[in-house]
């Protein structure tokens, strides 16, 4: 039982990171109906920015309190990664709005290749390890919970609350939901559609940047190709939860996290990704629009 | 006078706007690149990460961004806009610019420069040293390319009329030309790295085109079928020693079977759900190949895959009694095998293209196109969408399997490394960039994208310009990704956009306004 709960906690940690990335996918999909393939690499750029900021802090000051360091890493990473996503949206996706469906998908894949290779060229192809930032582990009834895991879950929960508030209670969120339902009508009613879409990309990027910082803190290592696997898993999570639905993205992320940690604990660690992808396929066979997705009504 | 004034003030306003945009671009570029180009993380001897600063490089990149943006706003955008207006007024096509570039005067300059550098280039390079010599090489390459481009441009009508037969003749003669230019040993690189490599991608893209371009099903895991074909040949060939000619159809059938197995569960899915399940399927196949070590030998891969023989009559193994040089009494060389492989993949490509063209005229091909255009209309007309989708998946997968077994035979070695998602993405990009559904466009896209990035490996003279640490290969994928974005933004319909259904009504009949809401039926 203790072992099982331990796995649940590991799954919750992983799932939080996937959930944060998945929100970016699902929001972009909801508003412009495109799979933002570069989002996984945006997450990787976030982790790398956090790494470089960490090293700069280490080089400039003798010692920095861990909380302050984490906060600075997160904020710098959020700002810079938002800038990246904003620029990418402007040069690669905006000119293709209204074009056929595959065109922005191809530019997104192109951007994903550009981002990962840009980091490889500028920062080198090797693994980048950092010394552990947080190492306390608490023991509760024989279950070990590390401080890292607590930080990840708390930060994620906090961000989700803020995010929920923004989407549901502010004018910006209203504009976003309006664009999601009918972009043309929203524009007629005075919503600045271009700006709303830009802000959607910025919000998605900042959540991915936080996920990247947490990822770096949790694993202590990052490499230029790290965007792909978490990106695909988060995308899987978004689809599993029903793409376009924000609570669905979080639920999907947690589901993928649980499946992975439980599968690797009880069955085989080699096949954990196979399990996650197979369950996605099985769920989609029975629920073709995901767990919380609205089934599309077909009209001619 | 008044016109000149407005033009002047417009020009200065333009320059002001350009300067403003340039400043914005510089600021954005600074913040984007300050951490990634300004500093570099490197391991020191204690295996700790340390920071190295590169402020000079950062400044160069920022200034470059500003200059490019300035030129774009001040010259490129007004130029493109004026192109459009001139067109509307006079009916002149944008080729008028091309006509100016490809004038007779420029041709003479190009021929003179190319000829002079071909004759005296080496002497000049020796005289000025390796650094400036590299620029001489660059100029020579540019002059030769210009002369060739001039030729293509001036015969453009002829070429576009006979494009397919000309392309075919060119492809058939390609190894002959390369051998006569560079000799057997020298041609190896051109036939193998360029010819065979590009043709493999052409074949894969034509296969995927059946699924994506004709049936309109977005498949992000096409590389899975390529892997199935490659491993079928690798395993059966090494374990049982069966010949390529038996295993080629077997690999195709195996891949087609996997296409159907994948097709069944995804029949109900639409659009992007289909995309993610196919992506997941591709990843599952790759992960199984890595982890099922007893059969696939894991990440180490399978080596010693037998070579293809010419239907068992002529072998390409030196030790065999019917080795090619013994049969014909010629000198031993590895390039015979490569040339043979080139013609083999060319034949496979032609088969794929021929089958695609024929299928488009059969009921199943029409059904695919109908499915792509409107699934609901398709269903209400009584087309069985289940079998239509499954045949598309199976036939597309079969060609992927053929290409896979050819790939295994060519490399002599397969490992899961070759079947990553990036390959699927590249193949899909070629299909979309070529203009979905157009075979010629896809072939051109494959040649440009794959050949273009391959040619970077050849640009060793760049090393002399940017210093010995500069490795052009590193920038290969970076440029590939950038090219994907630029081409897509520039031509969203692909190089040759032809997505019209093969069969369609020539004109829509006007219907009396009382029958419809908008006046046209």
Automatic annotation (TrEMBL), chain A:
InterPro entries: ABC_transp_permease, BCAA_transport_permease. It comes from the Bacteria. GO terms for molecular function: L-isoleucine transmembrane transporter activity; L-leucine transmembrane transporter activity; L-phenylalanine transmembrane transporter activity; L-valine transmembrane transporter activity. It is a multi-pass membrane protein. It is found in: Cell membrane. GO terms for biological process: D-alanine transmembrane transport; L-alanine transport; L-isoleucine import across plasma membrane. Signal peptide: none annotated. Belongs to the binding-protein-dependent transport system permease family. LivHM subfamily. This is Branched-chain amino acid transport system permease protein. It comes from Aquamicrobium lusatiense.
């Amino acid at each position: 039982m203790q072992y099982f709960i331990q796995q649940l906690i590991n799954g919750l940690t992983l799932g939080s990171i996937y959930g944060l990335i998945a929100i970016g996918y699902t929001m972009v999909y909801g508003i412009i109906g495109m799979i933002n393939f570069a989002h996984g690499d945006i997450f990787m750029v976030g982790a790398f920015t956090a790494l470089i900021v960490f090293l700069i802090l280490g080089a400039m000051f003798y010692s920095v309190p861990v909380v302050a360091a984490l906060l600075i890493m997160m904020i710098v990473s959020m700002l810079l990664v938002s800038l990246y996503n904003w620029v990418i949206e402007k040069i690669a996706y905006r000119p293709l709005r209204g074009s056929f469906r595959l065109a922005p998908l191809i530019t997104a894949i192109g951007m994903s290749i550009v981002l990962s290779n840009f980091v490889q060229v500028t920062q080198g192809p090797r693994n980048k390890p950092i010394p552990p930032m947080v190492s306390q582990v608490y023991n509760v009834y024989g279950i070990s919970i590390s401080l890292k895991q607590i930080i990840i879950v708390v930060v994620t929960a906090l961000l989700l609350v803020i995010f929920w508030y923004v989407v549901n209670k502010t004018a910006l969120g209203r504009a976003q939901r309006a664009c999601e339902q009918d972009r043309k009508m929203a524009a007629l009613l005075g919503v600045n559609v271009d700006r709303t879409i830009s802000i959607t990309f910025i919000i998605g990027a900042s959540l991915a940047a936080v996920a990247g910082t947490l990822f770096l803190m949790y694993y202590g290592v990052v490499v230029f190709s790290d965007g792909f696997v978490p990106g695909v898993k988060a995308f899987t999570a978004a689809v599993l939860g029903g793409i376009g639905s924000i609570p669905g993205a979080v639920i999907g992320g947690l589901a993928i996290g649980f499946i992975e940690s439980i599968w690797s604990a009880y069955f085989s660690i080699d096949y954990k990704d196979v399990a996650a992808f197979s369950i996605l396929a099985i769920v989609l066979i029975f629920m073709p629009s995901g767990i919380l997705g609205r089934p599309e009504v077909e009209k001619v | 006078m008044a016109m000149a004034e407005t033009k002047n003030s417009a020009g200065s306003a333009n320059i002001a706007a350009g300067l403003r945009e340039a400043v914005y671009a510089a600021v954005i570029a600074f913040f984007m690149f300050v951490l990634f180009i300004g500093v570099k993380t490197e391991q020191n001897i204690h295996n700790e990460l340390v920071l190295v600063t590169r402020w000079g490089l950062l400044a160069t990149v920022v200034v470059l961004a500003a200059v490019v943006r300035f030129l774009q706003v001040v010259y490129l955008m007004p130029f493109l806009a004026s192109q459009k207006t001139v067109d509307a007024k006079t009916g002149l096509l944008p080729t008028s610019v091309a006509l100016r570039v490809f004038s007779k005067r420029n041709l003479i300059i190009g021929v003179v420069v190319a000829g002079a550098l071909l004759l005296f280039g080496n002497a000049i390079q020796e005289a000025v040293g390796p650094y400036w010599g590299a620029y001489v090489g660059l100029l020579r390459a540019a002059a030769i390319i210009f002369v060739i481009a001039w030729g293509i441009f001036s015969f453009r009508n002829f070429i576009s009329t006979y494009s397919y037969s000309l392309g075919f003749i060119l492809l058939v003669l390609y190894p002959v030309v390369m051998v006569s230019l560079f000799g057997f040993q020298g041609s190896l690189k051109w036939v193998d790295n360029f010819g065979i490599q590009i043709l493999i991608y052409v074949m894969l893209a034509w296969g995927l085109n059946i699924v994506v371009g004709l049936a309109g099903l977005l498949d992000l895991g096409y590389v899975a079928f390529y892997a199935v074909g490659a491993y079928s040949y690798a395993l059966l060939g090494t374990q049982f020693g069966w010949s390529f000619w038996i295993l080629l159809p077997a690999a195709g059938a195996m891949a087609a079977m996997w296409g159907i197995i994948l097709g069944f569960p995804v029949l109900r899915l639409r659009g992007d759900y289909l995309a993610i399940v196919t992506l997941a399927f591709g990843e599952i196949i790759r992960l199984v190949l890595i982890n099922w070590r007893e059969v696939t030998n894991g990440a180490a891969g399978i080596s010693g895959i037998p070579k293809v023989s010419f239907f068992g009559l002529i072998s390409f193994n030196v030790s065999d009694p019917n080795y090619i040089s013994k049969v014909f009494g010629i000198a031993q060389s590895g390039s015979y095998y490569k040339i043979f492989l080139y013609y083999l993949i060319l034949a496979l490509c032609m088969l794929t293209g021929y089958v695609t063209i024929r299928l488009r005229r059969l009921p199943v091909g029409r059904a695919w196109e109908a499915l792509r255009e409107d699934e609901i209309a398709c269903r209400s007309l009584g087309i069985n969408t289940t079998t239509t989708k499954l045949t598309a998946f199976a036939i597309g997968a079969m060609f992927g399997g053929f290409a896979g077994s050819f790939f295994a035979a060519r490399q002599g070695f397969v490992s899961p490394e070759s079947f990553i998602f990036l390959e699927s993405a590249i193949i899909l990009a070629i299909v979309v960039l070529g203009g979905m559904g157009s075979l010629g466009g896809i072939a051109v896209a494959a040649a440009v994208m794959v050949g273009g990035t391959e040619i970077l490996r050849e640009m060793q003279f760049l090393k002399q310009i940017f210093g010995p640490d500069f490795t052009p290969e590193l920038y290969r994928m970076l440029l590939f990704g950038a090219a994907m974005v630029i081409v897509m933004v520039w031509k969203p319909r692909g190089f040759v956009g032809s997505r019209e259904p093969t069969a369609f009504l020539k004109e829509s009949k006007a219907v009396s306004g009382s029958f419809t809401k908008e006046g046209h039926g």
